[in-house]
Amino acid sequence: xxxxxxxxxxxxxxxxxxxxxxxxxxxxxxxxxxxxxxxxxxxxxxxxxxxxxxxxxxxxxxxxxxxxxxxxxxxxxxxxxxxxxxxxxxxxxxxxxxxxxxxxxxxxxxxxxxxxxxxxxxxxxxxxxxxxxxxxxxxxxxxxxxxxxxxxxxxxxxxxxxxxxxxxxxxxxxxxxxxxxxxxxxxxxxxxxxxxxxxxxxxxxxxxxxxxxxxxxxxxxxxxxxxxxxxxxxxxxxxxxxxxxxxxxxxxxxxxxxxxxxxxxxxxxxxxxxxxxxxxxxxxxxxxxxxxxxxxxxxxxxxxxxxxxxxxxxxxxxxxxxxxxxxxxxxxxxxxxxxxxxxxxxxxxxxxxxxxxxxxxxxxxxxxxxxxxxxxxxxxxxxxxxxxxxxxxxxxxxxxxxxxxxxxxxxxxxxxxxxxxxxxxxxxxxxxxxxxxxxxxxxxxxxxxxxxxxxxxxxxxxxxxxxxxxxxxxxxxxxxxxxxxxxxxxxxxxxxxx
Amino acid sequence: xxxxxxxxxxxxxxxxxxxxxxxxxxxxxxxxxxxxxxxxxxxxxxxxxxxxxxxxxxxxxxxxxxxxxxxxxxxxxxxxxxxxxxxxxxxxxxxxxxxxxxxxxxxxxxxxxxxxxxxxxxxxxxxxxxxxxxxxxxxxxxxxxxxxxxxxxxxxxxxxxxxxxxxxxxxxxxxxxxxxxxxxxxxxxxxxxxxxxxxxxxxxxxxxxxxxxxxxxxxxxxxxxxxxxxxxxxxxxxxxxxxxxxxxxxxxxxxxxxxxxxxxxxxxxxxxxxxxxxxxxxxxxxxxxxxxxxxxxxxxxxxxxxxxxxxxxxxxxxxxxxxxxxxxxxxxxxxxxxxxxxxxxxxxxxxxxxxxxxxxxxxxxxxxxxxxxxxxxxxxxxxxxxxxxxxxxxxxxxxxxxxxxxxxxxxxxxxxxxxxxxxxxxxxxxxxxxxxxxxxxxxxxxxxxxxxxxxxxxxxxxxxxxxxxxxxxxxxxxxxxxxxxxxxxxxxxxxxxx
Amino acid sequence: xxxxxxxxxxxxxxxxxxxxxxxxxxxxxxxxxxxxxxxxxxxxxxxxxxxxxxxxxxxxxxxxxxxxxxxxxxxxxxxxxxxxxxxxxxxxxxxxxxxxxxxxxxxxxxxxxxxxxxxxxxxxxxxxxxxxxxxxxxxxxxxxxxxxxxxxxxxxxxxxxxxxxxxxxxxxxxxxxxxxxxxxxxxxxxxxxxxxxxxxxxxxxxxxxxxxxxxxxxxxxxxxxxxxxxxxxxxxxxxxxxxxxxxxxxxxxxxxxxxxxxxxxxxxxxxxxxxxxxxxxxxxxxxxxxxxxxxxxxxxxxxxxxxxxxxxxxxxxxxxxxxxxxxxxxxxxxxxxxxxxxxxxxxxxxxxxxxxxxxxxxxxxxxxxxxxxxxxxxxxxxxxxxxxxxxxxxxxxxxxxxxxxxxxxxxxxxxxxxxxxxxxxxxxxxxxxxxxxxxxxxxxxxxxxxxxxxxxxxxxxxxxxxxxxxxxxxxxxxxxxxxxxxxxxxxxxxxxxx
Lengths: 498, 498, 498
Hints:
Chains A, B, C: This is Cupin type-1 domain-containing protein. Chains A, B, C: Keywords: Signal. 3 copies of one chain form a homotrimer. Chain A is built from 12 helices and 30 strands. The first copy, chain A, has about 500 residues and is α+β, with helices and mostly antiparallel strands. Among the domains of chain A are: about 140 residues, Jelly Rolls; about 140 residues, Jelly Rolls, CATH 2.60.120. A 7-stranded antiparallel β-sheet of chain A has the order 1-26-21-28-18-17-16. The first copy, chain A, has a 7-stranded antiparallel β-sheet with strand order 2-3-4-11-6-9-15, with no helix packed on it. In chain A, a hairpin with a 4-residue loop joins strand 7 and strand 8. In chain A, helix 1 packs antiparallel against helix 2. The radius of gyration of chain A is 24 Å and the shape is elongated. Chains A and C meet through strand 22, strand 25, helix 10, helix 11 and helix 12 of A and strand 2, strand 5, strand 12, helix 6 and helix 7 of C.
C-alpha cells in the first residue's frame, strides 16, 4: 500500500468491505460457535454466568448482520473523526510495512470447493522484515465435505483450525496417521510429509490459518502433488516414460491413463460416504484435556484446552510455548490466541525477543505500535544501518492499522504494541511468535507495568518529576493485560458483555 | 552450461570423453577393488555367490577398456535416440542449474604430483541453490606416494576416500593424530586443524571427495599454508621481520633461509622411506567393524563397514546419519553411497528435509528430477517469490543430466528424483545430504511407495478412478529402492550381474 | 580508511593524538588501578614481588604524562623508520577493512554527562566481514554520578566494565535485579530487558565496552526509551491519546504533563543521595571468587577473578568461554582480556573457529595479521568466490594497524595474527570471540607451536630442508603465548617491568 493515492485508498476500502460482507454469512455459524466456546472456557465463570454468556452470543450473532450493514455505510468515519486527522492516518498507512491485507496475498489454489491464499514474502514488502524472511503465512478456506488432494511441501507447516472439522491424514515413513481435528487444534506437518484432508462437517466451512517455514530455500516453498493427474498436475509426469515404465513395471498406456483422470483441481467434493470412511479410523485430535508432555507425542493439541495465561472480563489469552511443548521448541515458536472483548483492548506491551506475526481470525478493531525505524523525514533509517540518539532527535512514530478478518500484522521484538476491539464485535487474533524461546511479554500499563517496578529514585530521574506523580499515572489502571477500551472508558465504565 | 550453443556442447562432450578415457586406466584397479568390496559386503550372499560375484568383477574390468572405447565412438547416441528428442534434452540442460561438470570447477592446486579442484559457489549458478550456499564441493587427486603439504582451512572439511591409501595427520591442540585411511573412509577435519597427508599406496592414485563448510565467511574459504616456503607461500612471510625475529628469537638471515627452500608446490613426491615413516605409527582408520558409538571418538569411520540400509541385486545403499553419529549430528549431515548395478535404477523418491549434493564417483548413467521452479515460459518462478496453483497451470518440469565420474548434481528437499546406471557400468554415487536431521526418504514407486499407504477412498479421490486401477499401477513393482532399469525391463528381465 | 590520501592520513593521525591526549588525564587513575590490579592477580608473584610491582605502577603512571607528550612530538617516527617503508604501510592501511577507529563510530547519545558511540555495521565496511554482520560494537563513557535512563534494546547486549563503578538495575518479568559492578565485570543484558544505571564512583569516569547482538533485524538494533519524556523521547508518546487514556485511566492533561518533564537527555547527573539510594540494595556483582557454575545464575561475573589461562612476565590472558559458562554458551561467545606488558608481544597464533573482535582498552602498540584475501593486484579475491593455489601465486598479505584506546580490530577464523605493545605502556585488549564453541588457539611460535608438533619427515617435506634446520628456528623461543617484543629482543634481553 506504499504509494496509494487517497482516492485509490477509498475504492480499495470499499471493495474490502464488500468482500467482508460476502464472507459474513459463511462465518456466522462459526462465530456463534466460537463465542459459545469462549463462554465455556472463560476462566472463573460459574454455570449461570456461562449460560448468560451463551445467550448473549446468540443475540450478538442475530444482530450482527444488521450492525454490519450499518457499519459499512458509516465507512469507519467514527474512528477517523477522532484525534488522528485523516491526513495523519493516511500517512501512517503509506509508511507502514507491518500490515497486510487482501491485496498482499496471492491465490495459490482456487476451485469450486475452496481456495488457498498465501501472503507474499515479507521481505518483498520491506527490508525491516528481514528477520522473518523465512516465514510465510497463508490460509485455506474450503466448503463442507471438501477434499484437499494429497500434497507435500518443502516446508514445515503449522495449521490452526479456525473453523470446520478437518480430518487430516499424514503419510509417515512407516505408518498412516489420521486425526479428526476441530476448532482450536494446532498441528505441525513436518516438511515433506504427504498429507490429505477432508472437511467432515456438513455445513460449516473449513478455515485454516497456516504458518509456513521453508526448509530448502529461504522464504520460498512449493506444493508437490504426487497422487493426481492433470489438475493438479502430478510430479510423476515430469519423469520420462522409460523411467516410469521401469519404476512401475507397467505399460505406458496404462500409466498414461491413470495420470489423466483427475482434472477437478486440488480441492474437490467428497460424498458423505467418503467423508465417513476417511474419518472413521481417526484418532481424535487435540481433544485430550492434558497438554502433551514435553518430548512426547507429536500429534495435534488444542489451544483452548489449557487454562488461559491471562483472562478477565475484557479478554483472554491462550498460549502454547516452546518451554511446554517439544514440537514448538524445535520450531522455536509461541502460538497464542487473544480474544479481546468488544470495546476492550490489550495492554500496551512488547515482546522481549519474539517477533509476532498476527492473523485476525474474527472481529474488527485496530492496532497501534511505536516504531523507531520509520521517520517521515528520513525514510527507513534502519536501511542506513545507523541510529541516532538525543542530539539528532530520535522519535517514535505511531504505526497503526485497521483490523478485520484476514488482516495480518507484524510486531517486531521490542516494539510496544496494543490492539483494540471495535464496539461491535470481539476481536480474535491468532499469533505466531517466532524466535520464542525465552521470550517475555513486558506490560507497559496496568498492574505489572515496568515503571511500577522501578525504584522511586529511578522514577524521579527518568521522568524528572517526584515519584508520586509518576505513580499517579502508572498505578491507576488495576487490570492486567486486558483493559476496558477507549470508548468504554470515555463513557464512564460501560462494559461490553463477556 | 547455461548458454552453450549446440556445437559447443558437442565439443565439450568430446573433451570430457577424452578426459574420462585418460582417467580410465588409473581407475581400473580401483574399480576392481571396489567391485570386489561390494561383493564381500553385499547383504545375503553366501560364500559361493560371493566368489561368483568377485569373478564377474574381474571379467567386467577386463572387458571395460574395450567397451569404453566403443562407447566413446558411439557418442551416447543410444540414449539420445530414445523418446526425448535432442532438442528437448538440450533445452533441459540449458535451464538446469542442478548439474555441474568440469567447467564449473576451479583449479586451486596443480603440481606434477596432483591437483585440487573446487566447485564454484552454488549461488553463482542460481539463486535456487541459496539453501546450500554455505557448502562447497571439491576433490583431490594425487599420485602414488604424493605428499600434501601441511595446511589449515577456515572451514570444516569432510573427506571421503574414493581410492588410494592416504595416511593423514591432524595436529590437534595437545596431540598429533595419524590415521591410515582406505577406500570408503570418512573423516571430519575440524576448521582450523593443520593437516598433512601422504598417499601410502605405491601404485594407486589417491582420489578424495570433499565437502567444505566454511566457518567464517558464508560459502568462502581459504587454504592457509604455514610450514612451507615460497611455493606454497607460507603465511609466516606476511609478518614483518621485526615480529618474526622476536617470535622465533633468531636472525633474519636464518629465518629467511628456512622459508625460501620449499618451492615444489603443495603436492610433492615422498620417498618410500618417508611414506613408511609417516604411516608407521598411525592408527588404522575406520577399520573397526563397529560403528563408533554416538558421542564418542571423533576419528574416521568407514561407510562400507556397516550393513547397507537397502540392498538387492540392483544396487545397495550405504549410509551414515546424524542419529547414529555425533560427528554428523554436529554437522547436521547424512553421508550416503549408492552403488547402482549396471542397467538398474534407484526408485524415484524424495528427501523430506535434506538437500542432497551428489558426486559421481564411478560409472555412467543419468538422473531425472521433477522440478516445480523452472518453467520454460516464466523462467525461475521462485525468483518472483510466488507460486501458483490450479488456475495458473503449475507444472513440473523434468530436470535431467548425464552422469559420469566427477559430475555433481543437487536434489533439493521435496524434489522427486531418480538415477539410472548405464548398461555398461555400475553407477557409484557419493551423496552429502545437508540439513539431514529427521530426514525421511519417501519412495514414489516400489514396495513401500506413498500411494500404497493411502486409504482406498483417498486413492479414488486423488486419482479420480477406482482404487483397484490405482493399485494395478502402484503394486506391480515389488522391489524396494533399487529396480531393474529401463533397458532391463524392456528386454524382458535380462539382469546385469550383481 | 579505504581511500584516504597521505595528507589526510597525517591530519587524521594528528587529531587522533590530540584526542588521545585529552583522554589521558581522565584515564590515569584508571590505569594505576588496573596496573595494581594486574600486580595482585599476576600468577606466581610472592608478596614482595607484588609490592615491587605496585610500586612500578606508580612510577609508570607518574612518568606517563611526560612520556606521552614526547611521544606525540616524535610522531611515531620510530616505527615508521623500520623496515616497512612508509609507502608500504600506507598501502596496507588503505586496503585494510579489519581496523576501525573514531571515524567509523557513530554517536548515538551525547549529553553533558556522557556519550554512547556505536561502530557502524561491519558489512558496511567490507563483504569480508559478512560472517560477523549480526554483531555490533560500542562503548559508553559517562561522568562520575551519571545516570543512564531506563531503556531496552531489540538486541542482546554484553557489557564489560573497563572503568568506573556502575550500579545497574535490570527489570525482569517478576523482579528487579540490581548489581554493583566494578572493573572487569561482564554482564549479559538479555534482549528487551529494561535497564538503568548509575556510576556510583564520585571521581572515576565510567567506561563500558559493549557487544551488541540484535535479535530482530540482522545487524540492526534500536534503543527504546519508555520511562522518560521529550528527551529522550518516550515510546509512550507514539500511542494515540485515546489509547493512553484508556491504558492509564487518567486524563490527557495529566499524562501529557508527565511525559513533558524530562528534557535533559538519556545521560544525566544524579545527586549523591540518589546514587546512594540506587546502589544500597544491590548485590555485589561478579565479586564472588568462584566462577558461576555452569547452567546456574545469570548474574555478572568478573573476568579477573579466575586464574589467567596464560601468564608470564610478558603478559597475561584472562578468558571466559562457553564451555565453562552457560551464559556464554547460549551466545556462543568467548570473552578474553589480554594484558601485554610494555614492549612485549603476543605469539603469532590463529583461532580455529572463532572470529575475534578486539577493542583496545588501554595502551598503544600495533598488530599484524596474515590475510589471504586481499591482494594488491586482484582486489578482494573472496568477492569472486574463487581461490587459487600454487599455479596462480596465492600470497598472504600483511594487514597491520596501530592500536590505541578505542581502536577495534577483527581477526577472522584461521588468520594468523599477533599484537605488540609499545615500549611506553602495557597494551590491554578486550576481545569478543564469536562462534566460540570448540575453538582452539593454535600458536605459531613459542613452546607449543604447530611445527614442533610435526614429525621430522613432515618437517623435511614441508620445508624442503633437514628437520634440524627447521627445529633451529622453531625451538629457540621457549616462552608461551607472550614473548619479549621486537625492541626488547633487539636490545639484548632488556625486559620491561611486570
